Amino acid sequence: MLKKDLRLIYSERRENLTSPSITDLSLLIANRLLQIPIWNYSYYHLFLSITEKKEVDTSFIMSILQGKDKNILLPKMVDSQNLVNYLLTDSTPIKKNRWNIPEPVDGIEVPPEKIDVVFLPLMAFDEKGHRVGYGKGFYDVLLNKCRPDVVKVGLSFFKAEEKIVDIEPHDIPLNFCVTPDRTYQF
């Protein structure tokens, strides 16, 4: 299926989710994350959920990371395609931007080369680990700046599609995608 078609289908599927089901499914995803071998690293990039877009609630993952005393890096959009990573501290101010994305106002910047694990938002993914985001390319740009061995973990409420047909050469596949029912490894 084409990325544009998948964006429409999965936007509608998300729209049909209720707040309680988003909470329940997000908790299942966070618990399933504990089963994959990603916990011996130091620097974890974690997106903050856009509630209005009914994304996976990453607050449960943040709690796990904090409980394991990991360095949590939060993204901030700085221009049309670039994210800056700020270290989450007790005093990191968070504010929604014009697209309702919660992000740090400022803080201690950490270069992408330091990131060990990236949790990726997505609309859909396929059985080969290719993902469909919102189409702006922020995570493609970020992943290209990270080390080649960075672990890429997608988070999805839904199972894998068989195949995304319009994969581009710059699209970087996931290592894992975690859903409420299954963990995919690519």
UniProtKB/TrEMBL annotation:
Q: Which cofactor does it need?
A: Mg(2+)
Q: Which domain of life is it from?
A: Bacteria
User: Which E.C. number(s) belong to this protein?
Assistant: 6.3.3.2
For this UniProt record, the keywords arranged alphabetically read as follows: ATP-binding, Magnesium, Metal-binding, Nucleotide-binding
Residue intervals passing through the bilayer: none
- Primary enzyme class: ligase
Q: Does the keyword ATP-binding apply?
A: yes
Listed under catalytic activity are: (6S)-5-formyl-5,6,7,8-tetrahydrofolate + ATP = (6R)-5,10-methenyltetrahydrofolate + ADP + phosphate
Q: Which residues form a coiled coil?
A: none
SUPFAM superfamilies, alphabetically?
Answer: NagB/RpiA/CoA transferase-like (SSF100950)
- Family recorded in the similarity comment: Belongs to the 5-formyltetrahydrofolate cyclo-ligase family.
Q: PANTHER family given for it?
A: 5-FORMYLTETRAHYDROFOLATE CYCLO-LIGASE, ATPASE INHIBITOR/5-FORMYLTETRAHYDROFOLATE CYCLO-LIGASE
Q: Quote the protein name from its UniProt record.
A: 5-formyltetrahydrofolate cyclo-ligase
Q: Which organism is it from?
A: Arenibacter algicola
